[in-house]
Amino acid sequence: MKKWLVFFLAVLSISYLVLLAPFCTYMNNRPVAVRLGYMPHATVLKLAFADYKQLIAQDAVVRVLFYFGSLVDTTKRTVKTTPEYFHMFETLQHAVRLDPYNMDAYYFAQAAFTWELRKIREVNDLLEYGIAYRTWDAQLPFYVGFNYAYFLKDYAAASRFLQRAAELSGNPLYTNLTARYFFEAGQTRVGLAFIEQMEKNTLDPRIKRMYQMRREALHNVDLIEQAVQHYQQQYHAPPRSIEILVKTGYIESSPVDPYGGVFYLTSSGGVQSTSKFALIQRP
Amino acid sequence: MRSCLHIAALILKTAKRDKLLHAIIVVGLLIILFVPAFSLFSMRQVQELSITLATSTLSFVLLVVTLLTGATSIWRDIERKYTNALLGLPLSRQAYLLGKYLGIAAIIGIISILIGCASLVAVKIAAAQYKSDMPILWGTLLVTILFDTLKYLLLLAFALLFSTVSTSFYFSFFSTIAIYLTGMASQEVFEYIHGDYAQKLSSVSLFVVKGLYYLLPNFSAFNLKVYAIYSLKLQLSGLLLTIGYFLVYTALVLCLAVWSFSRRELL
Prior knowledge:
The complex is a heterodimer. Chain A is mainly alpha-helical. Chain A has helices at 3-28, 32-36, 42-49, 53-73, 85-98, 103-113, 120-133, 139-151, 155-169, 173-184, 187-201, 205-235, 242-247, and strands spanning 263-265, 271-273. Chain A starts with a helix and ends in a 10-residue tail after the last strand. By secondary structure, chain B is mainly alpha-helical. Chain B has one domain (2-263). Chain B has helices spanning 2-16, 19-39, 46-79, 82-88, 93-129, 138-165, 169-193, 203-215, 225-229, 236-263. The two termini of chain B are 26 Å apart. Classes of the chains: A mainly alpha, B mainly alpha.
């Protein structure tokens, strides 16, 4: 090999190694919005990608999951940047327009946009769109039914979808369990039952972790609610604070809010948290 | 250097008569022509969609041109015995190869300018149809087009390197496509293995994936489309690093191509 070529190669290799560290740091620290990217309108994508539209839809869902994962994973229980929820949801909407059978999109919408953001009607619209295609699937009507009952308190609409879930699954568990919980237990227990089922069915560790946090929070709320109930039975008045429940021995210690907030009692004896059960955002 | 430029000029002259190249450019311009109409598919993001369509069209055209000219150029010259005639002249092999690179790079640059200008007009028309909340940052859009062009100039270096390794057209063509796909995905794979999924991978797999990440070209760095679409602020240091990365990486690949071509037997 010619000497000048060897010299050039050596110089370039060293330059490459020198450049690699700052370049990789820059690439790995790009804004999350850049990583999520932009998804064109589904109609255009359908025309452009024809046979590959399912692939594009799945890619979009995976990007949203990655983006969501980067928000939660890297900062543990806090988020550093304002999550691009609007773009996340829009990306999912486009994804299901491309591939209306993509269950990941529906599942993620249910997981991330109901509890955290209370976009119940939007999520239900998306899920009902999916129900029209996934005609065999009992999970989607179950989610819609749950959302109607738990978040919107529309029990008539809820029973319609839960009935459909029961018929599709051939298993009356959906209606029986939910009905029993609604009538015999408080809302918290309904939420706990739902989350336990969702957590059991998920494979994605990020979504699982999200549900674990939610379950932990609801479990602690349930503990306090039970203690409040017992206190009221004995003293015929709601306790003024959680500390009183600790002092009187109804709970051993004040439960910790996994979202980073502090639990407190409302004037009517209800349980609330300063975190409002959403990840506390740091500037 | 002068002989390099002669070869580059020769390639440009040949490109003027290349009907396939003309057809690709016309198709690209036709797609750009429809961008304002296609953008109306979006209810709220007409401007954003027009930028996406215009920049994606440019990317696609440049990819096709890079593959067709870059991966086939040397193979065609060898097949038609042009190399025998050319290298019989007082012209070194490295001058021939670098001239080829410069010539094809100039073609890519000219196409980029042509379609880029048409894109700017199309975006302007589309944006006028529906007022967006975000301003169009023309500078960012131009930088996006420039960096997209740099991406294909780096890919072109790879196409020439593969052309010098094997006489088969298929090898250089499909290897270039493979490099393109892996280069586009390497950043996402790297981020993927840094999450929870890394725990499921063996340390050997992690080592291999990380090694490949540092070795393979990172084309994601040249993708600034989101910045142009959402009018995001560009980071100057990042852009300079990417330009540095482009220069060093392209020079390295071209050096390897020169070395490989100088050892090749041309029958």
